[in-house]
UniProtKB/TrEMBL annotation:
This is TetR family transcriptional regulator. Keywords: DNA-binding, Transcription, Transcription regulation. The lineage of its organism: Bacteria, Bacillati, Actinomycetota, Actinomycetes, Pseudonocardiales. Signal peptide: none annotated. The keyword Transcription regulation applies. It comes from the Bacteria. The keyword ATP-binding does not apply. It holds the Pfam family TetR_C_30.
Amino acid sequence: MATKTARADRVTATREAILTTAERLFAEHGVYAVSNRQISEAAGQGNTAAVGYHFGTKADLVRAIVRKHTAEMERIRDRMVAETGDSDDPRDWIACIVRPATEHLAALGNPTWFARFSAQVTTDPALRDIIADDALSSPSMVRTLDGLKRCLPKLPAEVRAERSAMMRQLMVHMNAERERALADGTPTPRKNWHDAATGLIDAVLGLWMAPVTTAR
């Protein structure tokens, strides 16, 4: 029994080392610029096939990194959605979209890599659905998006789709820019992640409430 427990602990430690290393390398260099061999070596694994052995394909590895973080973000969103109740203020629902990620990043300390990793993945046509599928399928996100939709002014379908895409891009890349600045030790517009989220919520709210210009 002790031998089995020790082996399970080693496997867990190996998987965690690979996940952490892959997240950092993907964030810094891009997903397809980094080979499984490079990840294995940087993670201190003598077996250069360790990544494939433990995770399978590169898409499977990316999915495992995403799920490592989304579990905690979902816990935060669940709490926020419960506190929001049946609010008819769109700002409350936008906060439920924005703050889980920023609270999670703040709790991780500095440096972090998940925001930059997410930016790399969401710009890759072969991988971007991994993040979207995980996020949009969660019960708390479904309720959040329903609550936001209920509070927004009536918009043409194409405008709603366009602004949804703008919101995603703004969130992903602003978080990545702040994370990069913190890692590099360069100035940031806001002093902490909470204030950065407040500014982002303001911007997203303004985006949704902006007038719609009729095509001419």
